[in-house]
Amino acid sequence: MQKQTRKRKAVSAPEQGADAQDSKFLIEERRRLIQQMVEEKGRVTVDELADHFAISKVSIRSDLRLLDKLGVLARSRGGALVIRDGEDLPINIKENLHRAQKIRIAEEAVKQINDGETIILDSGSTTAEIAKQIRGMKLNSINVITNALNIAVLLATTPHVNLIMPGGILRANSFSLSGPQAERALEGLHADRLFLGVDSIDPEIGLMTPYLLEAQLNAQMIRISRKVIAVADSSKLMRRNLSVIARMDQINMLITDKAAQPDMVELFKSAGLEVVLV
User: Fold this and answer.
1) pTM here?
2) Extents of the domains making up the chain
3) Which residues are paired to 201 by β-bridges?
């Protein structure tokens, strides 16, 4: 009696390709639904998403990493938050938005710094990346003026940095100090360069922020600085906000990322701004 063997059905290349395509569509649909859930609920957790889609937490974290990189949500500890225009997100959340672009901007920005200079680092997630770059620079000595507590902590033990901080009113979400006391503390000081992180920049109006006290302090920073460098990822371009910090003719340079639309870049250049893309 002959032993019968079960033959495994071979899957043709077209069928394999169709399966892969179906899988791709399923992943993309899941990510679209995750984005929709975050927008509807404001915040979701990894556990909640894993249960809802009946998949592993590892897969959910991978989805959130990609969606965060695309800027459609903000990853938080154990989940994700919705991003709404004008919303005052905590600095630890902002640090993870467009982080790769911010690091490249920071790497370019520190090329502007020379030994012995006095620089100002405004509060913000991009300027915090500049502070991290400064820690590794081979310098004898520079003076750093900052109104940001997180930046001060980053630079407090850096041997080649002389740190200067104004007082002021603390905005907890950004770790920034501002107000009349901070403005008075800058009187009589001079800086070679100001690195200014902004919420919005428009070629017709200039640099803007939602926070009036910070706009007034930034204006004072500009007045005491020889060169003003705006550092902003491309998501901040062509946006408008409540408080105007400065006109375009008060800014010397904009460092942004290569995702900036060419027509936008031309508008800024037409306004007299030197634009560096990284």
Assistant:
1) 0.74
2) 13-84, 99-277
3) 207, 237
